[in-house]
Backbone:
């Protein structure tokens, strides 16, 4: 789910189809309320209405009826995989998400936000194509490794402790991994036992030193 819109984005004139649910006044409305589903082709400041249809509201309908209705809408939308409404929650969100739609909650006149959504979608597509930076722990010797997690997170704004450590923990064979960190990641408690690993932590002047080892039977 994407809430709101940034004013920054790509300026390239790449066409994109965007579906918007609007009310009788042409303003974005909630899927619970129903209205008119309009599909636009957006190219920069150029916006063309391709097709539209009445869309029944989800309020008062049973779960199965809502699922069936959204699946039918998805077929009608065709290759348009971006959907906008002022509110898109609950089962409506779940079904659209399962059908791989990108969803936006935005209020107001579509003329004021369609190109901004197009720009944000293009930015996210570009970011998804960039290979993730891999941070590999350094070997200290005798199959023992070390990584300064705080330094990695400070240097790479897109990194998380899971992104940095889990690939190594899942794939590598090692005797011990020492992790220097400001605080001990909460996911250690659940994920390490699942990986058949254990940890011991030592308080330091500026955080913790956690030593992770495979559990030996």
Residues:
């Amino acid at each position: 789910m994407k809430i709101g819109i940034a004013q920054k984005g790509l300026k390239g004139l790449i066409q994109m189809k965007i579906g918007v649910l609007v009310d009788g006044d042409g303003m974005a409305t909630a899927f619970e309320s129903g209205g008119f589903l309009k599909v636009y082709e957006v190219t920069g400041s150029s916006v063309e209405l391709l097709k539209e249809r009445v869309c029944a509201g989800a309020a008062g309908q049973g779960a199965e009826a809502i699922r069936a209705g959204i699946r039918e809408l998805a077929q009608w939308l065709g290759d348009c995989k971006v959907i906008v409404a002022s509110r898109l929650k609950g089962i409506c969100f779940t079904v659209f998400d399962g059908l791989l739609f990108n969803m936006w909650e935005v209020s107001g006149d579509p003329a004021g936000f369609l190109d901004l959504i197009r720009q944000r979608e293009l930015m996210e597509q570009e970011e998804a194509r960039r290979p993730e930076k891999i941070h590999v722990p350094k070997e200290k010797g005798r199959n023992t490794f070390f990584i300064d997690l705080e330094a990695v997170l400070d240097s790479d704004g897109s990194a998380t402790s899971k992104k940095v450590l889990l690939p190594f923990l899942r794939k590598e064979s090692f005797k011990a991994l020492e992790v220097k960190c400001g605080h001990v990641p909460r996911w250690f408690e659940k994920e390490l036992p699942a990986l058949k690993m254990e940890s011991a932590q030592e308080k330091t002047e500026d955080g913790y030193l956690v030593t992770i080892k495979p559990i030996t039977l």
